[in-house]
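Folding Problem: From Residues to Backbone Shape
Fields: amino acid sequence; protein backbone structure tokens
RECORD BEGINS BELOW THIS LINE
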Amino acid sequence: MSSEEKLMSKKKPAFPVSAQLNDYLIEYSRNIKIPIFYEDLLRFQGSVVVYDKNDKDTLWIRTYYSEYDRADIDLCLKKVYTILHSDGNEESIPFLSIDAIDYCTFGNSKPFRIKVRNVLNDNYTYFYIKKTDASRIYGLELEHILSPYNLNFLVYKDTLIEEHIAGIPGDVFIKEKLHDCNESEKSQIAKEFVKFNERCMIRLLGDMRSYNYVIVPVHDFDHVVYKIRAIDFDQQSYEGKFKVYYPQFFKENNPMVSLVGKKLQKSSIEQYKLEERSIVAKRILSSLDRITELIDCMKNDTLSIPENITLLKHQIYDFTRDVEFKRCQNMGEIVATALDFVKRNYETVNTKKLA
């Protein structure tokens, strides 16, 4: 059994969207009526395996439907695209083509990936259709509020629509791109991994193995800056082991961990951790009403099992020595206490500076 199998529990169940969370989604324009559901896409008549450029199985299959179903599904998917990326105006529909409907046979969410192309200029993008899961929705919202990146997604009944997050899959980047980076770029990637590691831990986003995040190269004047973005939010505050919320403890990320050890001194690592905690604290304070509403939903929701809650709150207490964690009764309260811990530390430091 691998270390990851020991670290992660068996398959996480999907949790229903509560009435309170649904009201939150309506308030922030996340809940919008859509013309197609996840189950509709399961009616495919057959499929073929999708291979990558090296003829390796991608674990996605390309689906095909009956002629009648395909015409109706294509039109509905075009409408979803206009709702997700615009105001739902259907004037652009004649210029859109649904080039592919792929189904992932791997992982918890088993999503459909929709490729949409503009026939006028051949530009294309993707979006994903998944089953709703409260954990995933909380993960998406926390990422939207607490990370540097905004996320666009919609929820309607039992269907979740997510926009595509562009980037190089972490496992592909590590295998094919990392060795070509110069020394300066490697140092910058190491810095970003430290900050990504800290950000995931603070908001309790688990299972950030290399295929669950992307590397985004950004050209800045005469050099390239690399950013790391999570793309999978299924494991938001479910697991009991604190290590699950640290990307550094997954073997797939060992090359990144090794890079941090080679390129950064301990003082620099601590500096970047502090920077990330401060940035997260500032985001909490700048979106206090919204994050308070979201956390209130989490506190009143069921997002894990009792043994995970008990284990996690004691392990975080051992790490922080903050007795408030021991008083937590559910995962929502643990997340709330973790964010409050970061915010209080930030405010304490700034109060001392002003004194």
Notes: Residues 331-354 form the longest helix (24 residues).
